[in-house]
Amino acid sequence: MSDVHFIGISKLDSTKRQLEFAINIFFHSGDFVVIHTLASASKTVLIDLSKKQGIVSFTEEMMKLIKKDKQNFVRKKLNEAQNFFKHADRDPSTLLKFNPDLSEYTIWESIELYQKLTHEITPLMKSFRMFFYTKHTNVILEEKTRKEFEKANTIVGWKDRKQFLDLVKLFEKDLIK
C-alpha cells in the first residue's frame, strides 16, 4: 500500500491562495483567462463566507440599487466571463467578448472582502490595492486620497505592473503602510 498524504485546507486559506496567485500572475502580465478564473473563484467563496458573517460585498450592495426584475440579468452579466471560462454545457461554440480589465475589479473586491473577513491584508494584496487605486483614481471619492494616488502615479506609474512586486518587499518590511 502506498503512503497517501492529505493536507487539510480551509475555505479561507484556499481562497487566499487563489487570490494571491491571481495577483502574482497579473503582475507578471500572465494569461487573462487564468487571472480572471482564479480571481472569480476566490471572490465567489469570499462572498459566501462574508454572508455568513453578515458582511455585504460591493456586488451585493450594488444589487440593492437594481430593479428586482433586472437583478438576474445584471448578475448574469457580472458572472458571464466566470461562467464562460468554467462551463461549456449551454454554449460550447460561443465566443465571449471579454475585457481583461474586469479582473482588476474582481481582484479589488476580493481583497476588500478578504480584509473584512480576516482583519488582515497581505503585502501582495496591499501592493495590488496600490496598483488599483493608482490606475483607477477616478473611483476614489475622497479628494485628498485621490490626489495622493494621482501623485503616486507620477512616481510609480501603473503601466509597469512588475514594479508593484518590488513594493511587496517594502510592505513586508513595513517600510510603507
Using the alpha-carbon principal axes, give the shape. globular
The number of distinct β-strands equals 0
Separate helix tally: 9
If you average the pLDDT, what whole number results?
87
Short description:
The chain is mainly alpha-helical. About 65% of the residues lie in helices and about 0% in strands.
Fold topology:
Blueprint lengths: L10 H17 L4 H21 L5 H6 L7 H8 L1 H7 L15 H17 L4 H13 L7 H13 L7 H10 L5
Descriptive account of the structure:
The structure is a single chain. This protein has 177 residues and is mainly α. The protein has two domains: 1-121, Up-down Bundle (Four Helix Bundle (Hemerythrin (Met), subunit A)), CATH 1.20.120; 122-177, no CATH class. Helices cover 63% and strands 0% of the residues. It contains nine helices and no strands. The chain has helices at 11-27, 32-52, 58-63, 71-78, 80-86, 102-118, 123-135, 143-155, 163-172. The chain starts with 10 loop residues before the first helix and ends in a 5-residue tail after the last helix.
Task: Give the tags.
177 residues; mainly alpha; Four Helix Bundle (Hemerythrin (Met), subunit A); 2 domains
